[in-house]
Structures are given as C-alpha cells and as structure tokens.
Write a structure and sequence with these properties.
Layout: H1 6-18, E1 23-25, H2 36-41, H3 46-55, E2 60-62, H4 66-69, H5 87-91, H6 95-110, E3 114-118, H7 122-135, E4 140-144, H8 164-170, H9 172-183, H10 191-202, E5 208-217, E6 237-245, E7 248-256
Parallel strand pairs: 1-2, 3-4
Antiparallel strand pairs: 5-6, 6-7
C-alpha cells in the first residue's frame, strides 16, 4: 500500500528476475481499513516509494489516487468466505473484502502473468489464491519469504510508529515463533500446547497486547483440534499472530510443513 521498505524491495527484485516487464502499484486502499484513524495515520511517502522502485528495476510505477481507482461509489463486493473466518478476517471485519476488491481491479487494469506477495501476510495470500481460483483470474500467485530486520522483527510499514521501547519488545513475535519451531517436535506436543507456549512468550513482554494467537491449517485456514498431536498432522499449518504495541498493530506468522517439521516456511 505504500511507504515501501526492503520487504517490498525483495518482491520487486524477485519479479525483476522472473519477468520481462515489472509493474509496481502503490495505493492506500481505504476499503480495507476497518478503522478510519488507521487509514488516516498510515504512512505515505510517494517520492521514497518511487526511488526504491527505480532501484529495484521496476518498469512501470502505478500510483493512482482514490478518484482514479473509485470514480464512483463501489457497489460491488468481492467476498471470500471460510478462508477469511479466522485471524485478521475475524478481527478486522470487512478487511479482506476491501483487499479483494482492489486486487481484482488491479488484476483487470494491469493483466499480470504473475503477482508477488510476502508471506508475512500469509492469510492475505491464502485469500487472494482462493479468489484467483474461484473467479478464474489468469494470473499466477507467487509466495515470497518474509523479510526481517537484523533482530528478526518482520519488516512492516507500521514499524515506524513504534517507540524505542515498543520496538525493543516487538522482537518477541519472532522469538515466540522461533520457540514454536523448536517445540513442534517435542514428544506429546499438541496444537493447544503450542498455542499456549507462544501466548506465554508473547505475554512476557509488558507492552504486548495480543489481538489473536491462533493455529490453523494453511492455506485452507480451517480450524485445528487443539488436542491433536502435531506429529500426526497431515497438512501444513500456520501459527499466526497479531499483537498491539501501543497503537501499532503488528502481524507475523510461521507456516510448518508436516512432511518436515524441522523446516520452517
């Protein structure tokens, strides 16, 4: 949506390596904000964004304003069910409806062969993949690794809002996910125990206020029986987090492949 950082830069460079023509769009989409103040507050820096895009070899930089994207009131909604019933979909009502509307419009405007997304927004990827499959969009969705700061905090445009102490404590998100990675192979480890372990670690930081800490199958986002042993899992699963530090809401996740639980995705 803008205020691009190295995580976005990695997507543009991967696209540059794989495609003959690279288009980057920047648009702060009001439809996907569930809180008006969050939309107003969201960081913007058009000159900075264009500079990074040029450095990454982008051919076309598309930065429409709201009047260009939505010249008339939007009366059409794009709703993906089930995949949006948990995590960000449950805690940010209407968020993914707005995401799907703007992504569908961008697909129709640009007509891309490939579209690249970072796994930090794993549920968003699952939602877009479902929309693409259901509506027969002729585009391939490419999942790209989460890019992290030197201390492993996931890069986010919202990180700029963190105070020094909030920033220091926010690394607990990646630390909790690392502990989850180390715990999945322990004897008797259930999904419920793993969720409790991650919750305890995050809540050890006094400024951390969990919005959700959940485990679901991925990419279906179907609920998992918390009493089930992890070693018996047949499908990939995601440990998803959303945590507030002050007014700033951060997300992170880790996806595990049951064929090799020692490898994190």
């Amino acid at each position: 949506m803008g205020y691009l950082h190295e995580g976005h830069g990695s997507l543009m460079r991967i696209a540059r390596q794989q495609c003959d023509l690279v288009v980057t769009s920047v648009f702060v989409n009001e439809l996907q904000f569930d809180e008006k103040d969050d939309f107003v507050r969201y960081p913007r820096d058009a000159e900075r964004d264009q500079k990074l895009a040029r450095q990454c070899g982008v051919d076309l930089f598309f930065m429409p304003d709201a009047e260009e994207m939505y010249p008339e009131p939007v009366l059409t909604n794009v709703v993906v069910s089930d995949v949006t019933a948990t995590m960000c979909g449950a805690t940010r009502p209407g968020h993914f409806d707005g995401v799907c509307v703007v992504v569908a419009k961008l697909f129709n405007i640009v007509q891309p062969d490939y579209s690249f997304y970072g796994m930090k927004d794993a549920q968003q990827i699952a939602v877009i993949e479902q929309m693409v499959n259901d509506l027969s969009f002729n585009v391939n969705i490419v999942r790209c690794p989460t890019v992290r700061e030197n201390d492993n905090l996931a890069m986010s445009s919202r990180n700029v809002f963190l105070s020094a102490e909030e920033r220091r404590q926010a690394v607990v998100l990646s630390q909790a996910l690392d502990e989850a990675s180390a715990a999945v192979l322990k004897e008797g480890m259930t999904f419920g125990k793993l969720e409790a372990l991650v919750t305890t670690r995050i809540c050890s930081m006094p400024l951390a206020v969990p919005v959700y800490i959940e485990i679901h199958y991925f990419p279906s986002m179907k609920k998992i029986n918390k009493e089930n042993l992890i070693v018996n899992a047949l499908d990939s699963f995601i440990v998803g987090l959303a945590v507030r530090f002050g007014k700033t809401r951060l997300i992170d996740n880790r996806v595990f492949d049951p064929k090799n639980l020692s490898i994190k995705i």
